[in-house]
Amino acid sequence: MSSSPRVHIIYRGDGWAVKKEGAARAYKILGTQSEAIRFAKRNYAKGTEIIVHRKDGSITLTKKEKAHLEEEGIVTLHRHECKAIARKLQVCIPKPEGRK
Question: Are the C-beta atoms of residues 40 and 50 closer than 8 Å to each other?
């Protein structure tokens, strides 16, 4: 990991927040996730790790992380992809705890 702080792109009710890891407040709020990612790429030092969250707060893997997992033989799928595969195989995927 670089010495630069990591930057998170997080959804809030009023937009997408660009926030340094450990900071109490967001640096900037933008209307879309794409705008927030572009802002972070333009305004933080090269090599700063940008961590993009989905609306539900889960983390989106970077291309580098996905490539590393694929090299290790690990396949990453979104939940909707898992559901489609399960339907084809006629198996059941349990819902995450706390969801109905």
Answer: yes
Q: Could you write out the DSSP letters of every residue in 21-41?
A: TT-SS-SEEESSHHHHHHHHH
Rounded CA separation 18/40 (Å)? 7
pLDDT in tens, 61-83: 777 777 776 776 655 555 555 55
Task: Check if the beta carbon of residue 59 is closer than 8 Å to that of residue 21.
Answer: no
**Which candidate, 37, 49, 35, places its Cα nearest to that of 5?**
49
- In contact, 22 and 4? CB cutoff 8 Å: no
Separation CA 96–CA 9 (nearest Å): 23
pTM of the model: 0.59
Distance CA 21, CA 40 (A): 13
Give tens-digit pLDDT for 6-61.
889 999 989 999 999 888 899 999 999 989 989 998 998 887 888 888 888 877 67
